[in-house]
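During the second half of the funding period, the structural biology subgroup turned its attention to how the target accommodates small molecules. The most pressing case was CZF, which had performed well in the primary screen but for which no bound structure existed. We therefore specified the complex as follows and requested a full 3D prediction, including the ligand pose.
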Amino acid sequence: MRVLATTTNPLKAQRLQELLRPLGWQVISLAEQQVPIPEVPHLSPLDSALVRAAAAAKASGIPAIADESVFELQVNGKLEHYSMHFGPWNTALERNLRLLERLRGLPIERRGARFITVMALAQPSGALEVFQGETAGLILQRMENQGGIGYDPLFFVTEASKTLADMTPEEREAVSPWRRAVERLVEAQQASKPRLQPSMPAAQPEAKPEPPPPQPTPMRVLVATSNAGKFKELREGLAPLGWQLFSLLDYPFKLPHEDGSTFEDNAMLKAAFATKQVGIPALADDSGLEVEALQGEPGVYSARYGGKSSDTERNLYLLDRLRHVKGEERRAKFVAVLVLAYPDGHLEAYRGEAHGLILEAPRGEGGFGYDPLFYVPEAGKTFAEMSLEEKAHYSHRGKALRALLEAHRNGPPPREIVVLE
Ligand SMILES: O=c1[nH]c(=O)c2ncn([C@@H]3O[C@H](COP(=O)(O)OP(=O)(O)OP(=O)(O)O)[C@@H](O)[C@H]3O)c2[nH]1
Ligand SMILES: [Mg+2]
């Protein structure tokens, strides 16, 4: 069965797909099927999830899932909800300070809170089901850990005896209300259709390899991309550093509109915005394809070339633009710029380029984006015909990553002192 998840975040759609696999469901996201979802500002989380799921199911004609996560607490006898959308404040730090101010003077025994996810499943017929996951905790009286993500440094999880900010992404998912809500949804579907899935196992976390031995203080870094293909390559490439990596799945905010005219500008824009949102260093990747015969097109517009919304359509559009260009004239290069931004405003940038030819028809199943069309003569293969490691050896991203690795070989590189003349 196909089910529409009302998210544009491919990382979230992918995780949902993994968790719903026992049901045999295929998750598609709003990135693949666009349907209008009403903006529902002043509704409770329950109403908001219901309204969005119902609207999506009606518009798409297939079942739809929507979720909403909030912190819920009682202030002076009244229930209040706090989310990413709380107040006009832009950064996590601002929101945290506002929340602390709101609760000032409340003794710890009155600071009990719940982190809640409401997940609604709507059928095109109008039938609705709701599943809720909860995590109990306390809102601390001060931020113990300046780093951390969103409300994480303030939310002390009772069962784990630590704040969300002090958890690894794995520990965080294990106590996350979102994960619990998905599990309840899976259990309920299995219970209601016992004869269809007699021996299906319950959703289990994937067996994860043992984490590397603890380093002195691993740096916590948010990999600020919504592109699942990039995320996979960045995670692999950064592994030797032993950093604790977070993704937009751990903290799903929208990256800013990329209106820069260079890869450097856009990578900076994304990384600087992201580190402000979360209070830990953030790494962004801006990349794209420059085709010589098209005067460097699609360049910074690679992700939205020709206004097309899928990789396949963009590849067809590129082939069409090059239909009169032959052989060696189809030279192109991929460029990737990685920017690592620190919460104090400091930035590091790394660039990598890969040269090749645009084929006249796609080849290979791997990779993402334009990979099936990008042929690397010295390898005799397209990026899509390579393994992850092989692609990293030749690719723009692999090269930029190696420059970053080299600079961080002995910890964060010394900050350059610029002497103004
Ligand atoms: O075949 C490809 N192999 C690659 O290795 C590659 N790297 C980049 N690209 C293309 O360039 C756009 C980047 O645009 P982009 O940097 O804005 O990223 P994005 O919007 O996809 O994600 P985000 O990181 O901004 O969230 C991407 O969407 C792709 O079309 C690639 N295509
Ligand atoms: Mg982008």
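Two results from this model are relevant to the next phase. The chain is about 30% helix and 25% strand. The domain at 220-407 is CATH 3.90.950.10 (Maf protein).
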